[in-house]
Amino acid sequence: MKIWIVHAFTDRVFTGNPAGVVPLERWLPDPVLQAIATENKLSETAFVVPTGLKGNYQLRWFTPATEVPICGHATLAAGAMVLSEIDPSLEVVVFDTHAGALIVRSTPEGYTLDLPRKQRTPWTPDDSVSEALGGVELVDAFIGEYANVVLESEAVLREMKPDIAAINRVIRGPRQGMLVVSAPADEGQPYDFVQRFFAPSAGVDEDPVTGSAFADAAPYWCDRFDLESVVGFQASKRGGYMRAIQTLSSVRLLGQVAVFLRGELDSSLARMHNRIDAHPEAPQRKKRRARKAKQLPAIFEDPMLPGLEAEATTIAEPSPLPEMAAPPPPTSHPAPPEEPPLPRIVVTGEG
Question: Which of 25, 39, 44, 91 is an active site residue?
């Protein structure tokens, strides 16, 4: 089970939007896919499974919190890895997804990705949307794949300090808690418009670079500037560029990728079908040898005093010990031993 971490919509690492790409032989249970994406802590992890037709794969995207119906930068990253490393003989790869068939092509300038073009409908947001974005003035607004608002200038967009919790609360559709904010680029910039994208409901407060959001905003700026294609820049901390060309039914994005990591997932993940929610197993305790209780030495060997046998097992306050009779005093001092008699000298007359 291989894994790539790819920085999409950029030509160098540590910029653009990072995505995990995990090719599988067959689909694993959804809880396992979600656990891998949660562990990766990337805005999206793309899982691809071959369908059996050459150049055709199934594709699904997971954020750290949930599965999403479409993701542009992870699709570009997955297509780049299929075309450059999984099957370099291909020039085009078709992904079957919840959003329909998505096509990635290899070109001398990078990779192109065709995303569905959503019809724009006018939208008049209430004051709560402006307040959620820090009180900025909204110049225009419309609904496409996401809710979109347009600001007056790039400077206003860059300085905007949104309330992420408020965005999640006030943006109710078509995707709850997801909002594209765009503005015209300042004079002299190498791009035509600038944008930011917020998706707290999907576990991503502010996304670094968002292909599906570019596909939503780019046709608006093509029409506004009367251009066939536009270049957009996402003004996140990482930042990223892409060119967008609108067709009758799709938006074709052109971007580059930079591979940050090539690795391998442990094969045991494929066997976690029924253990994903199980509590970790504790290590076995070492069996203890049975030991005989130590015999404590007797402190008092004399039997209990009379009358205390019944009191010995009582837990309540003990009865006072019975008074013991004092031994009688000696009546007289012992007599000293008699002195031995003096030896007698017997004198006989016959001496």
Answer: 44
